[in-house]
Structure formats: C-alpha cells, structure tokens
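Severity: low
Component: inverse-folding endpoint
Summary: output formatting inconsistent between runs
Steps to reproduce: submit the following structure tokens with default settings.
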C-alpha cells in the first residue's frame, strides 16, 4: 500500500442487518450475512449498501458459503443446512445434518459441514441435497476448508485438525495444533489454523 493511500482506509458504510450477525459470504454479486438470533440471512447490495432481502432459515444460523449457484447456511439450533436460491431469495431445501452444525465449505463438487456436537462432518450433494457421507473427526469440529484436493477440519475440543480425502471420505491425517482451534483457511500453499486457547496460529504444510 502506498503511503498516500493510508488516508483512504476506513469504514465507508454501516449496514443494519438482523440480531447478532456472524457469518458472511460473497456470491460474486451480493453479500450474505447470517443473523444468529433473528434466524435470518441478510442479502446486501455492496454498491448501494442496502439490505435487499431477509431470508428466514433455521434456528441460530451461523456458517454461510456460496457454491457457484446457491447459498448454504448452517443452522446451529435446528441441526440443519438451508439451501438458498440467491435470485429468488427462497429456501429451496433444508438438509438434516449432525448436531450443532457450524462451518460450511464447498469443494467444487460437494458441500461439507462440521457438526460440532456430533464430532462429524457431513458431505452433501448440492443437487440432490442428500447427505452422501458422514465422516467422524475429532471432538468439537468447528470450521472447515478446502485446499483444492483435501478437506481440513479444525476440531476445537481435541486440539487437532483432520485432513479428509473427499473421494474416499476417509481421514488421512490428524494434526496436533494449539488449544481450541477454531478458524481454518488455505493460502494456496499451506493451511492456517487459529488456536483460540493459546493465542497462536498454526501453519500446516499440505
């Protein structure tokens, strides 16, 4: 960043959504925000900074992801995942998963959902909206990411990260990290995991 750009950094808009907004995703056109207490998802036009739709989903929506066509939302309190058509703003499917679903990710073919209280990850076919596999991971899986080949899951209560082969649905590695790992992301080369209990971030070689 050039020095003269520093004066341009700042909040340019504040958009009012539902109660306790948590998850956020971009579909290429709109911003989608899960409102945990309201049980809704807000659709925001990033140009006008206005909410153009409020979609009612399950109880306590948390994670949100876009798979190229639809929006997917994990509903903590309902143990379900909502599939939303971003054009009609309608929920087109509600998929039962494990207990207390949190993170959600798309691997280019399937939707993956971390079920915190079940210690599992659900694999969903986005077309049939059926759960095609349930993979047992560590305790308290929280978030999930895709590295282009494998699925990675942060297991908060185990202090581990599970590596899953999305074809065989098998856990191929379990990596010990810090205490209470929560967030997980891929930078194109490595996996990064936030350890909320130790104030650290672990970098994992893929």
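Observed output (run 2 of 3):
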């Amino acid at each position: 960043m050039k020095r003269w750009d520093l004066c341009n950094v700042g909040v340019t808009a504040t958009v009012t959504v539902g109660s306790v907004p948590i998850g956020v995703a971009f579909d290429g056109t709109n911003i989608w925000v899960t409102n945990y207490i309201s049980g809704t998802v807000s659709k925001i036009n990033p140009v006008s900074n206005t909410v153009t739709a409020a979609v009612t989903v399950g109880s306590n929506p948390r994670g949100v992801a876009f798979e190229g066509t639809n929006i997917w939302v994990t509903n903590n309190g309902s143990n379900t995942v909502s599939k939303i058509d971003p054009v009609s703003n309608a929920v087109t499917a509600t998929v039962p998963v494990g207990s207390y679903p949190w993170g959600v990710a798309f691997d280019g073919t399937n939707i993956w959902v971390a079920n915190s209280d079940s210690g599992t990850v659900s694999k969903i076919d986005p077309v049939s909206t059926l759960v095609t596999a349930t993979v047992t991971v560590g305790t308290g899986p929280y978030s999930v990411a895709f590295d282009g080949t494998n699925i990675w899951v942060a297991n908060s209560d185990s202090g581990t990260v599970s590596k899953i082969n999305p074809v065989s649905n098998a856990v191929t590695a379990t990596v010990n990290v810090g205490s209470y790992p929560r967030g997980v992301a891929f930078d194109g080369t490595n996996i990064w995991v936030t350890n909320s209990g130790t104030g650290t971030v672990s970098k994992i070689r893929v």
